[in-house]
Design a protein that fits this description.
Shape: globular
Number of strands: 12
Order of helices and strands: HHEEEEHHEHHHEHEHHEEHHHHHHEHEHE
Distance between the termini: 30 Å
Length: about 550
C-alpha cells in the first residue's frame, strides 16, 4: 500500500517485538533519551579516587571466594524473562554468584555491597584462556540477564576457550540497584511530553522529572554518589583478581566501551585482550554526544525508509522523503490525539518516538517498525509502537519496569558535572532540528537529564589514555545510530598509538560483532589466538 488512509479496515497479524532478553546485544538503550531528571535539589560532591595501577583495597576483599550456584530467573529489576537461563547448546550450564565490593572505593574498609555475577565455564578446559568479561552498555543494562541469550546467539565460538562472565554493575539490577519511582509513577513519567512546544509543557516536564529525582533520593540516596564509571572499573579489577586472572580479558559494547577504556586507563598493565564495540566517543560532551545521536538516528531512519520503499506494502511509501514526512505527520497528530491500545494505555507522541528509536537500533527490528507504522496509520491503534517503546524503557508485559533507565540517569549524572537549563536547550533547538527533523527536539530536551540531580558529576570528560596497555580492538559500525562511527577513531587515538587498533565494519545497527562474518572473524582471531589486525582494517557488509 502507498497510502494508509485508503487501506481496508481489516486487522493485520502484528508480531510483538522480541523481549529485552531475546534482543540480546543487538538493541541498546538510548543514552540521552526523553526528558529526564530536573529540579532544584542541592548538589553534593563525591570523593575522587586516584588513578594508576595501585588500588587501595584490603586483603579480605581480594581473598574472597565466589560461591557459584545454579542461576535463578532474572529479577524484575534485571529484566525478568521466561525463567532461569537455559544451558548453551553444548549443555554448558550457567552459574551465578556475588562479589563483595566497597560502596565507596575511597574508603575500602567501609560499607560493602554485592555485585551480581553470572558465568558459564569454557567448553575446552584443556585450552582455556581464562575469563572473558562482558558489559552490554546502557549504562544500566543487566549483564546477568543479557549474557545467556547473547551467548546462545553470538558467543558460542568464544565460549570454546573462555569462561564467559558478566555482571550487574553497581546501581544496576541486583547490584544495589538505583530505585526511583514505582511502576505507576514510571508509566506517568514516560508518558511526559519529551518535545515540549510551550512554556507550560516545559514546566510540566520539569515538575514530573523533579518528582522522579525526589524518589531516587528517597529510595537510593546512599548509593547515588558511588555509581560512576570509575568505581565500576575498580570493581572490574577486583573481579579480575578474584576470578584468578592475571589480566582482564574484556568485551564491552556501547557504554561498555567507555567502562573498558576507563579500566585500561586506570590499570593499563592489567588490561588483557579487550574489545570495544559500538564505541562511545570519549571526546564529546553531553551536547555533542546528543547531537551526534540525532544525526545517527536520522541516518538510520533514512536507511529504514529506503529499505521499506523497496518492499511491497510499505506504510511510508515508495519515496523516502515522503516517508519521512508521513512519520512527522503521524508524530504531530499524536502530540494532540493519542491512539488506543489493548492494555488500556494510549500511544502518544513520546511513546511513538521511543518506539521508532528502539526499532532503529537494529535491522532485525525494522520489520516491527514497519508493522507498527502500518497499524497506527491503518487501524488507528498503537499496540506495536507502544510495545517497542516499552522495550526501550524496560517495561515488561505485566507492567513492571527493570531499573535500566533509573541506573542510566544515575551513572551518567555521576560521571559528568555539566547541567543544562531550559533556556540553553531552547537556544540549541535549531541546530538539533537541522541534524534531525524527527529526533532533534527529543534529544535536545534530553540534555536536561541531569539538571537538578543531587550528586555533582565527577568531571567534564573521560581520560582514556592507556600508553602502557597492549593492543585494544576498537570496532565501529558505519551505520551505528546510537554511537556514531566517528567515535571509534577518536577512542583509538585517545587510547594511544599502538594501543587503540581501529576496525571498521560497513554495516547497520548498534554493534558490529555478529553482524558480519568478516568483523566477527577478526574479533575472534584476536580474542582466541591473539592475532592483532592491522590498524584501520575495514570489513565489508
Amino acid at each position: 500500500m502507498t497510502d494508509g488512509a485508503d487501506a481496508p479496515p481489516t486487522r493485520p497479524q502484528f508480531s510483538r517485538p522480541p523481549s529485552s532478553r531475546q534482543r540480546s546485544r543487538r538493541t541498546r538503550i538510548l543514552r540521552a533519551g526523553a526528558l529526564a531528571a530536573a529540579g532544584t535539589l542541592a548538589a553534593t560532591a563525591t570523593a575522587a579516587c586516584g588513578s594508576g595501577d595501585a588500588s587501595a583495597r584490603s586483603g579480605p576483599l581480594t581473598e574472597q571466594r565466589l560461591d557459584w550456584e545454579s542461576c535463578p530467573a532474572p529479577s524484575t529489576l534485571q529484566g525478568a524473562g521466561a525463567g532461569a537461563p537455559e544451558p548453551l547448546p553444548d549443555g554448558a550450564a550457567w552459574e551465578c554468584s556475588t562479589l563483595q565490593v566497597p560502596l565507596d572505593w575511597s574508603n575500602p574498609d567501609g560499607k560493602r555491597i554485592d555485585v551480581a555475577l553470572i558465568r558459564v565455564k569454557a567448553k575446552d578446559q584443556d585450552r582455556r584462556l581464562g575469563s572473558l568479561v562482558f558489559n552490554f552498555g546502557g549504562p544500566g543494562a543487566s549483564g546477568v540477564a543479557t549474557l545467556p541469550s547473547a551467548a546462545k546467539e553470538d558467543y558460542t565460538t568464544l565460549h570454546s576457550r573462555y569462561d564467559l562472565v558478566s555482571f550487574d554493575p553497581r546501581g544496576v539490577g541486583e547490584s544495589e540497584a538505583v530505585r526511583c519511582l514505582d511502576d505507576k509513577g514510571l508509566d506517568a513519567l514516560y508518558a511526559t511530553d519529551s518535545t515540549p512546544d510551550n512554556a507550560a509543557e516545559v514546566r510540566t516536564g520539569l515538575a514530573d522529572a523533579k518528582k522522579s529525582v525526589a524518589a531516587c533520593v528517597r529510595n537510593s540516596g546512599a548509593v547515588l554518589p558511588h555509581v560512576g564509571t570509575e568505581s565500576a572499573a575498580r570493581d572490574l579489577d577486583l573481579l579480575r583478581e578474584v576470578l584468578g586472572d592475571d589480566k582482564l580479558n574484556y568485551f564491552g559494547i556501547s557504554y561498555g566501551t567507555e567502562l573498558g577504556a576507563a579500566y585500561a586507563h586506570l590499570f593499563p598493565r592489567k588490561a588483557g585482550r579487550m574489545v570495544l564495540d559500538a564505541v562511545v566517543d570519549p571526546t564529546e560532551n553531553p551536547e555533542q554526544g546528543a547531537l551526534g545521536q540525532a544525526k545517527g538516528f536520522q541516518l538510520a531512519l533514512d536507511s529504514f525508509l529506503k529499505d521499506c520503499a523497496q518492499k511491497a506494502s510499505c506504510p511510508t511509501g515508495t519515496d523516502p522523503e515522503q516517508g519521512e514526512q508521513r512519520i512527522k505527520d503521524l508524530l504531530k497528530q499524536l502530540d494532540s490525539t493519542s491512539l488506543p491500545t489493548e492494555d488500556g494505555r494510549r500511544l502518544n507522541q513520546t511513546h511513538a518516538l521511543n518506539g521508532i528509536v528502539q526499532a532503529l537500533y537494529s535491522q532485525d527490528l525494522w520489520p516491527y517498525l514497519k508493522q507498527g507504522l502500518e497499524e497506527a496509520q491503518n487501524l488507528r491503534t498503537g499496540n506495536l509502537l507502544l510495545a517497542l517503546s516499552d522495550s526501550l524503557t524496560g517495561r515488561d508485559q505485566q507492567g513492571h519496569y527493570n531499573n535500566i533507565q533509573s541506573a542510566n540517569t544515575a551513572i551518567v549524572c555521576a560521571d559528568d558535572k555539566r547541567r543544562y537549563t531550559p533556556d540553553e536547550v531552547r537556544a540549541k533547538l535549531p541546530e538539533f532540528r537541522a541534524a534531525s527533523p524527527v529526533f532533534g527536539d527529543n534529544l535536545a530536551w534530553g540534555l536536561l537529564q541531569c539538571t537538578g540531580w543531587p550528586v555533582t558529576g565527577k568531571a567534564d570528560g573521560v581520560d582514556v589514555s592507556a600508553p602502557d596497555a597492549g593492543p585494544i580492538l576498537v570496532v565501529g559500525n558505519t551505520g551505528d545510530p546510537a554511537t556514531p562511527y566517528a567515535g571509534a577513531k577518536r577512542m583509538a587515538e585517545g587510547l594511544g598509538k599502538g594501543v587503540g587498533i581501529e576496525v571498521t565494519n560497513k554495516g547497520q545497527g548498534h554493534g558490529a560483532y555478529g553482524n558480519g562474518s568478516c568483523v566477527t572473524k577478526v574479533i575472534n582471531a584476536y580474542l582466541l589466538d591473539g592475532k592483532v589486525p592491522r590498524n584501520g582494517t575495514v570489513c565489508p557488509t
